[in-house]
């Protein structure tokens, strides 16, 4: 008989703008997360080629070329989305693109799914942006948002983790 806490399907995690980061493969390799399937995407064909070559033997991991402004996945596909520095990078170019990315992430998450951001942007600016995204209620399309300061890197930049629940 199946245990109560045994998931009946894979947990699907999307890492947006993966570059050549080991975050996705490390999560896929984690024994405690055996039901996890990780999809890495990046717009750089070079990064995608390299990640595919490096991690070809991981059965629950894939890396695809893709655009975070127009994600090639159906609505509600993922349980979790991880973003480490990608929204920060987009914000340097255009606030419009950053908002488009947040709404695409929201679309591909299932209800109750989580969007985890690792960012150098301070909460005052970031929470305003996230609230702005598609908001008519004044709270944005997320049911909950939490942030935590992760400490400072060598160059004394502070890092934050933002967790948004759809
Ligand atoms: C700051 S890097 C972060 C890389 C990785 N997450 C890490 O932590 O090392 C931003 C990444 O986003 C990718 N990127 C930028 N615009 C993108 C877009 N529109 N669609 C998909 N990826 C994009 C870049 O190619 C780059 O790899």
TrEMBL record:
Residue span, Methyltransferase domain: 14-113
Pfam family, one: Methyltransf_25
Keyword DNA damage belongs to the record: no
InterPro entries reported in the protein's UniProt record: Lys/N-term_MeTrsfase_sf, Methyltransf_25, SAM-dependent_MTases_sf
A GO BP entry: methylation
GO MF entries: methyltransferase activity
Domain of life: Eukaryota
Keywords: Methyltransferase, Transferase
Family the entry assigns: Belongs to the methyltransferase superfamily.
Protein name: Methyltransferase domain-containing protein
């Amino acid at each position: 008989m199946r245990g109560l806490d045994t998931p009946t399907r894979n947990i699907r995690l999307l890492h947006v703008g993966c570059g050549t980061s080991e975050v996705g493969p490390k999560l896929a390799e984690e024994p405690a997360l055996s039901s996890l399937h990780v999809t890495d995407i990046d717009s750089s064909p070079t990064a995608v080629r390299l990640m595919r070559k490096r991690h070809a033997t991981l059965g629950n991991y894939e890396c695809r070329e893709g655009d975070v402004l127009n994600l090639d996945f159906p609505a509600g596909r993922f349980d979790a989305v991880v973003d480490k520095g990608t929204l920060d990078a987009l914000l340097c170019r255009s606030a419009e693109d950053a908002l488009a990315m947040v709404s695409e992430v929201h679309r591909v998450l299932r209800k109750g799914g989580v969007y985890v951001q690792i960012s150098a942007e301070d909460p005052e600016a970031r929470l305003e942006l996230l609230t702005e995204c598609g908001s008519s209620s004044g709270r944005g399309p997320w049911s909950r948002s939490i942030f935590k300061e992760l400490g400072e890197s060598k160059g004394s930049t502070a890092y934050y983790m933002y967790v948004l629940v759809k």
